[in-house]
Design a protein that fits this description.
binds 5'-O-[(R)-(carboxyoxy)(hydroxy)phosphoryl]adenosine, Nucleotidyltransferase, domain 5, binds zinc ion, alpha/beta, 18% strand, single chain, five-stranded mixed β-sheet
Length: 330
Amino acid sequence: MIVLSVESSCDETSVAVARDGKEILSNVVLSQISLHQAFGGVVPEIASREHVKGVTVVFEQAIQEAGIKPQDIDLVAVTQGPGLIGSLLVGINAAKAFAFAHGIPITGVHHIAGHIYANQIEDDMLFPLVALVVSGGHTELILMRDHYRFEKLGETQDDAVGEAYDKVARVLGLGYPGGPIIDKLAVEGTTRYPMPHIKTAGKYDFSYSGLKSHVINTVNTMKMKKETVDPKDMAASFQEAAVRHLIEQSKNAIEDHQAKMFIIAGGVAANKALRKAVFDTFKAVKVSVPPFKYCTDNAAMMAIAAHYQYQTKQRTDDMALNGASRLILS
Ligand code: KG4
Ligand code: ZN
């Protein structure tokens, strides 16, 4: 089965073609990051406009690189949500137009299912499986007892971990997006700044606002006292606390559900400290981390998720398919 997929939920315009839920024939990603950098974050209006400008070219390039013709495609998949509604609609309308013009069935796919299925590209899923989803908007633990069956065990009670990385980078004046910058700097620093130990009511839940505020307050107080903040040491201290919390909650979920496999998914899954920590900590389960290029938003992961969604549910949509800024993973 050949799937063509479209992803435009945030600030990447991407189209991919994949065969049989495994082989990526093409994955074209047009990133807008440089345009949003001046604003310190994604500006939704700019994002929608850039998707409109780029989507046709990205479509053509993905089909050309895959070496296929539109009539070879069995299914068109598109990210339905969650995400920025204006951005989602550009991808959805482009996907609908393409599917309608070529008489191909279309299906909407959940963005987080895509992040999770990025792991299926190089590894095969083993069930029961625990997935730690970590991105700019999500911090969740998901249990899967089989393909395309998602049970949410817990989630952040306030900020997402990626958001905390971005805000900490901002107060340190490091630029946007902050995650990769902190990741790099932390390697050169020491964990000499004390950080709070994060506590949550639920053993699979997360909380990042306290840690984020602690760093912001520490940095601002030090600046007022004219003390110098070492960004490397602050990055290392913050990252150590942030990753420790992810590992502690994941450990609870893995042990309680006798998981055979543990995977990480989403933009923060690119984090080197987190990747090292999961392999160092979880020895009794098969651990999978997505290839770097499939961690942040891309359409390849959406094509793999679409393949499994179709195989398990035979779900297709019609031309009434609409975007949803909030959407439950099911
Ligand atoms: O999955 P993604 O591309 O978009 C969302 O769906 O949110 O994730 C983006 C987030 C940003 O917060 C970014 O700072 C973070 O992932 N990120 C990282 C790293 N690379 C991206 N965070 C920590 N370490 C990284 N290496
Ligand atoms: Zn994402």
